[in-house]
Amino acid sequence: MPRKLSVIRNTTLSYAGQAYALLVGILIMPFYLGHLGAEAYGLIGFFSVMQAWLQLLDAGMSPSLVRAVAHQQSLPTEERNAGHLLRSFEIIFVPLAVLCCVVIYAASPWIAVKWLNAQVLDHQTLISCISMMGLIIALRLYSTLYKSGIQGLEQHAWLNIANVIIATLRYFGGLLLVSSISNDPRDFFEFQVLVGLIETLIFAARAYQQMPTPHLLSGFNWALVKPIIPFAASMSLTTVLWIVLTQIDKVLLSEMLLLKEYGYFSLVALISTGILMLANPLAQTLLPRLTVLMAEGRQDDMHALFLSANRFVCTVLFPLAAVIGVHAEPLIYAWTGDHVAAQWSHSILLWYSLGSAIMAASAFQFYLQYAHGKIELHVWYSVVSAVVTVPVMLLAIHYQGAYGAAVAWFALRLVSFLIWPPIVHNRLAPGINGRWLHDILRISLMTAIGIVISEPLFRMIAGDDRITTFMGLAVCGLVTLTLVAASYKPLAVKIFILFSKPST
Prior knowledge:
Blueprint: H1 2-36, H2 38-53, H3 61-72, H4 82-115, H5 123-152, H6 156-181, H7 185-210, H8 222-225, H9 229-256, H10 259-277, H11 280-295, H12 299-326, H13 328-336, H14 339-372, H15 376-428, H16 433-461, H17 466-486, H18 489-500
Helix pairs in contact: 1-2, 1-6, 1-10, 1-11, 2-5, 2-9, 2-10, 3-4, 3-5, 3-9, 3-11, 4-5, 5-7, 6-7, 9-15, 10-14, 11-12, 11-14, 12-14, 12-16, 12-17, 13-14, 13-17, 14-15, 16-17
């Protein structure tokens, strides 16, 4: 029971922290669009894509550190050596960070002139902004490493307080800058460099405090690093393939679309990424706990926790994605106040939101393999998915542009979701697939019913103004979510008992 409560507490804290960062980002981004213009906003979207691709430099070391530190928590204090491992990884990251800065700086003129299709921003401005992107990404490379160590220690409360502080500084500070001081995109990216430096120093200080490290020059410990290499290599490969799956469309569209149109597409990408990220807080608390349960030989408890977590995520994400997709145009207009952006992106957002919810649910198959320490299946799945995704996306974007990318995104996610989970379940956890499938079908059906029932309510509430539109969307979401949650039998029984009690 204490451990179950710990998972609930940590998950709640993680959701609170990351929900704040996500919501603040989503709320403020339209102001960036208004103050900086569509092209500069498209440049920010391109930075997000570049940042995702350069996560490859991590080479699977950060998730490996989470796992290694989590494993060590069951050892006697005198046998723990997380600090030595952290310092070894720090040393490995030095050439990677330098490479990131140098390559992006050297490539910035070509990207500005040959790749991006800007009509308003001049080439020198683009070159300056792109050059700074390399430095920001290098700093975040290190901050992610330190966060991983803290996550492995399961210090989720502190981690999320720090994330809230950084998110506040990043978004509200950026808003103050572009609204009151300067709307030059170069100043915006200079500010992001400063925030990245502060973020890295904060997490580094905490990691050093909790995991004392040896002297810099004598800190590399090959004996500690060597056993982690196979797992890190597997994680690195899966990361490469994951980025190909999730970012190939954004890369191709950054070259095909005008930078202004790519700014509109970035709104879609932000929402769909937000849907994916909603499962991250749970994953941060779930993965260490699943790993510990497996290490203790409590496989049944691990599977029960896995199914409960999957049920919770799908209960939240499926209704949310459906409401966003069905009401995409009024949502984007209510969010941005930009009719052009809403009209351009509404048909695209429909398929991206649904596909992102499916992809978030699909990630649970990786969590199961991660806990077992057997990710070979995931590697093969990722390879096959990448081999299929790349040509499909190339053809879809070539013939149908952004809309083709959206439909292909949804279709690829749906097909893989129908095929892959039963394979993983039967291989690693025989007996759970029936319960998993029952949850998925129930949640999907009740989501569809909820959307149909709530549609008249939306039309009744939503007017021409943005506030009533938001109110209508909120009612739709609440009705659909309530219907899905109430369809879960144990919860329904509890509600029935609660309301059937005689008053005293």
